């Protein structure tokens, strides 16, 4: 933890002389103080006329940042969960330092209000002096500002850690900040904030790189499939089109290289030559700073637009051969923690089976598709087998294959089986809880020995597969009752991912809009009206994501371009069911701050228990309380 020195004398010296001895302040803070002095800001001022944006203008500014805010929201919520119990607030501002949103512990929100650290207030350096939000934007780097390091006297009771969100072309689109009492905001907090921002930047990069050739880079080859890898994107002429800070840092470059450097300028050979030399999409590249491990990522199709604040980008290739997840598979991940997919990829790359749990219809199959597409095996087979859909007597033959004449009705030429069809790729065993015990034993042998023995006595065949399994059943209970093998369960259940039902994923309206965009509804200018989205939010969706997705596909097929869809356009039975239903749990919330506090009191102040009783996340409950207090 960086100590906070007694800055009273330093502030006095700077106020009187505009200079300080070396080492008394971090260089970034001293440079910021000098900038603030040049702005004519009164360092000793304790009060200041506050100008909060009108609600309509704040809404306009939020709308202008809507693209990147929607990508950032899951990671902001995760960061909030990490810091809220320490009495801190998470602040999100736009690229000009205007606060757009705030999530905070009630104990600190009142102080934040007094300090004008609330939505609608501007925190650029020219207005608030040295502060984490404004200074991070000025430096385009993470920054920690504690206590008296703030330029304005009135902010000395505050400590902030902030990191700017840079788009893949180096432009700041926003900033994420954690603020609170100085004793609780330290260098470790800054690392948390910056880690969250790097994940947000990766999501921005994924939107930007569609249709381009993208390299993952890292000095350590084992890190290429993790969020720690840097990335570069090139067009068909091998010109650098997008980059992130980490990759540019390893190359000793900055964002000015975008649009001006080609692959050969960075690595001393063309991309096509490197691919032919390495013989695969993974290898080593020589840079001015040494060797880097590199992997060519699968291309993806355009699925969304970049934030409007981004500058114009170089032209894209005329054609692309996407190998990534379909738009609807990617949209299925709406409402899920973004790091889940990254963690699942790391398990898959380490040859650890991935187990996905959840109710029927939550999107387990699409999570598996997205996992395959994000892995190094994206260009290899993805073989899905629904164990519940196969007759018990045919499961073995379907999975392991068979020799000619192995059983009555067997095909003359035999069958390779689904596991061998997936050689080099990924096998997805859906509803593995319905797999017969005898087949479970054979599957365990495949996982242990990496060979498949076809039915009918054929020679063992080696297989190279990665395994993803899914079920809506309680496998642990099945182990206890003897209907699922314990040894297979413990082989699969290293780090299970439980996908929440749709009713527990937050804003169902936002998820519906994400799916609608993935299906192309926006391109046909068919609009989901506010009344219709409100009805979606009210409904409990017993069929989960599958039910919502099927409904949206049906509406898209039935209505003409330019239609504004309203509740009357729903099938009669479904509309009546939605209108008659009790509000879904995520919206059964007290309507005032006093009612919210009374609800919290009934749970002895336990925010987790109170949020669970409402069917929402803690961050949603905190956000609602903050909104009611505003």
From TrEMBL:
Keyword Transcription: yes
One Pfam family cited in the UniProt record for this chain: HTH_8
PROSITE patterns: SIGMA54_INTERACT_1, SIGMA54_INTERACT_3, SIGMA54_INTERACT_4
Residue ranges of domain Sigma-54 factor interaction in the record: 346-557
Highest taxon in the source lineage: Bacteria
Keywords associated with the record: ATP-binding, DNA-binding, Nucleotide-binding, Transcription, Transcription regulation
Coiled-coil features, chain-numbered ranges: none
Region ranges (Disordered): 305-326
Protein name as it appears in the record: Transcriptional regulator of acetoin/glycerol metabolism
Lineage start: Bacteria, Pseudomonadati, Pseudomonadota, Betaproteobacteria, Neisseriales
